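Whiteboard transcription, Tuesday session. T.W. wrote the structure tokens on the left side:
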């Protein structure tokens, strides 16, 4: 798909009258209608059949929905530009580009999709979708097949709803664990994130729906996201954030790339020639189109010259001036043609012209909900277990504690918010307000009911946890106490620290003091600190578990399903271990969902960790996190033996893994490699399910890209000859088998 070379168009400005000429009657069917022809030939024919004005019309989207359709009172800070009806022809999505009927080019309907087909506030009345587990939960599966399945589900539902462009594919690395949007992303490692986002994108696009990888680039916090300047060296950038995008783009071939709000090394991402022109379209030869984030454009000519192809909706429509800029000679008509060509090429490549998405398609809700539950189960991470889990069948009295256990599981808030089958519960006193629509939301599948159904022989009682003393009394009277602890996350809002909110740490402490057999179920979109860790019997991280999260959690608790998730993000012992002790630019008064009505003065962020993000930072500084990247327990045990390697021009490692426990389980063997003088980085992994006593040899080929380092001076990737330390282990902090590989020198000019 999209295996075409980037075309460079350089023509002189077209006569002004061509922009104004009216379109003739419907054009005769051309080559672009012939699905047997190469993508490039079809795209070129279609764009050449368009008038210059039609080409220009593709370079700007408008809001495809209207806040008026929310049916709620809008606060005064909502501008008049957001109080208008949705455009004719739109189906109520985040973005809309009108069709060009004369050449039979379809309208573009753009919708968010990180956690399913999003609809932040019932802007498409009557439409609900499957709420998938958070993308961070997906990363915890360490399973490309699950990522492909997630994309497949999103693509199917989008197509059935008439949506042909999904803004799915978030792969910003988790440099900042207090970032309110980490639940939408794939963790802190570029290889894990890149591989999984590539599979997710491919899954979406196999249903003739364009996917979008985002937010390009270095967009790891919400505070000041419109104005901050991310500063780091070229090498650090190439080896971390850009590497995740590069791996994902090469693997998934997304139709579009969304540039971010922030600056990178002094230039806004959407008018950054280094990011868009030199790296993305130059070094990587990316043939798709670059769209801006909503409100991320600051200019016309500088943005287009840098490589921006499409302005997304915002108050100032810079791209309205394209025709005048061409007439004045400030832009070349060939630039506009190239922008349109990239959009058309991508839509043809994914099959969106040959297979038109039309609202009203069928969705198998039951099958999709079952898939969502399977994904949630695969992503749940068991962090501690002193023999408390799985729950014994003999347990007769179980105390469930925590308000939301009787409501549902959290849904991440913001533009990615999904309205799940069955609707949502919102934490807001006034449901008829915009504030309510942006408040923390929960599915209507209560974990309490799911556990009661899974343990019919037990008496399962409930306490909302509002009174720690009362909750402790309930725990003391039970065989097992289970505390469901929640930390909601929403786009636009970061956190001052890593603690659980609303006194939940004190609640857990009180409950554990009354009953040592206390299980803590964390439902968070980020790492949290655990001052009570030594007092409880078990801890599991369930993340935001999606449509059937309650059932997934119950399945792991009872042993109907075995835990197999691994942490895709390090859990710090405290904020003092982080490169930035506080979120740079954080202002508690400006933490508002979606950042609506909030302004910041510009400020820089110097990313002193460079490419040593997360677990690599801990190795570099010698700090020990609470739980390391890649960590996760099972209900059995595994032994590693028989390490062997093949080195030289590449590195392949083999090891024998044995299930030494009493039940079937899944192990994720992880390969970490350290180039000379550098920290270890994840270079590959193998996921294997074994019966008790079973042994299997796994082979892990180190990703060649992770054996390279970027030379800032030479502007190329290099692999110095020498000894490379490596280990196969259970996590970044648990080496089991160690070795040294001798590799030959290699260089890779510019990009792979």
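and on the right, the sequence the group agreed on:
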């Amino acid at each position: 798909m999209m295996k075409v070379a980037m075309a460079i168009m350089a023509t002189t400005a077209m006569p002004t009258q061509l922009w104004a000429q009216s379109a003739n009657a419907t054009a005769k069917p051309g080559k672009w209608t012939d699905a047997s022809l190469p993508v490039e030939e079809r795209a070129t024919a279609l764009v050449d059949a368009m008038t210059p004005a039609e080409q220009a019309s593709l370079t700007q989207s408008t809001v495809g929905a209207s806040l008026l359709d929310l049916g709620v009172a809008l606060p005064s800070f909502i501008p008049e530009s957001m109080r208008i009806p949705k455009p004719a022809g739109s189906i109520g999505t985040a973005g809309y580009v009108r069709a060009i009927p004369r050449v039979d080019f379809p309208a573009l309907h753009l919708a968010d999709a990180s956690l399913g087909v999003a609809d932040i506030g019932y802007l498409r009345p009557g439409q609900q979708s499957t709420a998938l587990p958070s993308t961070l939960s997906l990363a915890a599966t360490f399973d490309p097949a699950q990522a492909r399945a997630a994309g497949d589900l999103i693509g199917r539902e989008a197509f059935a709803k008439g949506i042909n462009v999904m803004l799915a594919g978030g792969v910003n690395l988790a440099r900042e664990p207090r970032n309110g949007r980490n639940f939408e992303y794939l963790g802190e490692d570029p290889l894990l994130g890149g591989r999984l986002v590539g599979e997710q994108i491919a899954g979406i696009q196999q249903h003739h729906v364009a996917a979008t990888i985002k937010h390009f680039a270095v967009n790891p916090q919400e505070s000041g996201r419109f104005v901050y300047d991310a500063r780091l060296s070229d090498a650090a950038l190439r080896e971390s954030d850009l590497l995740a995008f590069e791996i994902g783009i090469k693997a998934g071939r997304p139709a579009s790339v969304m540039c971010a709000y922030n600056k990178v090394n002094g230039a806004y991402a959407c008018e950054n020639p280094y990011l868009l022109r030199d790296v993305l379209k130059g070094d990587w030869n990316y043939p798709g189109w670059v769209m801006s984030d909503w409100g991320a454009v600051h200019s016309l000519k500088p943005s287009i010259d840098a490589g921006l192809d499409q302005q997304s909706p915002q108050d100032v429509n810079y791209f309205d001036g394209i025709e005048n800029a061409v007439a004045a000679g400030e832009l070349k008509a060939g630039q506009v043609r190239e922008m349109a060509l990239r959009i058309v090429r991508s839509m043809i490549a994914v099959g969106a012209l040959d297979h038109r998405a039309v609202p009203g398609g069928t969705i198998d809700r039951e099958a999709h909900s079952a898939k969502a539950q399977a994904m949630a189960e695969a992503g749940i991470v068991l962090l501690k277990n002193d023999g408390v889990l799985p729950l014994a069948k003999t347990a007769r009295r179980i105390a469930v504690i925590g308000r939301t256990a009787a409501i549902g599981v959290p849904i991440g808030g913001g533009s990615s918010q999904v309205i799940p089958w069955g609707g949502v519960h919102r934490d807001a006193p006034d449901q008829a307000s915009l504030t309510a629509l942006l408040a923390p939301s929960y599915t209507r599948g209560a974990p309490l009911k799911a556990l009661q159904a899974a343990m019919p022989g037990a008496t399962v009682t409930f306490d909302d946890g509002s009174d720690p003393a009362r909750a402790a009394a309930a725990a003391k009277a039970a065989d097992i106490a289970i505390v469901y602890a929640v930390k909601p996350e929403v786009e636009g809002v970061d956190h001052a620290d890593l603690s659980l909110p609303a006194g939940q740490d004190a609640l857990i402490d009180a409950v554990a003091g009354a009953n040592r057999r206390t299980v803590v179920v964390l439902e968070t979109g980020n790492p949290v600190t655990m001052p009570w860790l030594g007092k409880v019997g078990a801890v599991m991280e369930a993340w935001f578990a999606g449509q059937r999260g309650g059932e997934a959690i119950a399945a792991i608790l009872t042993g109907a399903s075995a835990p197999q998730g691994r942490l895709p993000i390090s859990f710090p012992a405290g904020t003092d271990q982080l490169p930035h002790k506080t979120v740079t630019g954080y202002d508690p008064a400006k933490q508002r969902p979606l950042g609506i009505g909030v302004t910041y003065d510009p400020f820089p962020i110097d990313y002193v960790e460079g490419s040593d993000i997360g677990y690599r930072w801990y190795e570099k500084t010698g700090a020990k996190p609470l739980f390391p990247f890649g960590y996760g327990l099972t209900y059995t045990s595994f032994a590693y033996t028989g390490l062997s390697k093949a080195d030289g021009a590449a590195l392949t490692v083999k090891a024998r893994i044995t299930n030494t426990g009493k039940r079937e389980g899944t192990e994720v063997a992880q390969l970490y490699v350290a180039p000379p003088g550098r920290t270890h980085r994840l270079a590959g992994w193998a996921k294997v399910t074994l019966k008790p006593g079973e042994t299997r040899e796994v082979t892990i080929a180190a990703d060649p890209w992770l054996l390279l380092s970027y030379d800032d001076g030479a502007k190329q990737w290099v692999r110095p000859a020498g000894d490379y330390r490596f280990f196969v282990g259970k996590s970044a902090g648990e080496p089991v088998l160690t070795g040294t590989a001798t590799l030959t020198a290699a260089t890779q000019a510019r990009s792979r």
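Someone added at the bottom: The radius of gyration is 26 Å.
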